[in-house]
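User: New here, please read:
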Amino acid sequence: MSDKIVKVTLVRSMNGRLKNHKACVRGLGLRRMHQTVEVRDTAENRGMINKAYYMLRVED
């Protein structure tokens, strides 16, 4: 499972969001709008994605 890569893109602004949601987005390595990062598909990363799902686009 950890060999799989997931592309995550920030599609909504982090302005005015909950502090722990912002922290999850930053933890995934996203800094600015429309930036895409590739992260390993682990339970930890999935948890951060699920927490801030409404700001992200995920591609397998």
About this structure: The CA atoms of residues 50 and 56 lie 9 Å apart. The longest strand covers residues 5-10. The domain at 5-59 is CATH 3.30.1390.20 (Ribosomal Protein L30; Chain: A,). Residues 19-27 form the longest helix (9 residues).
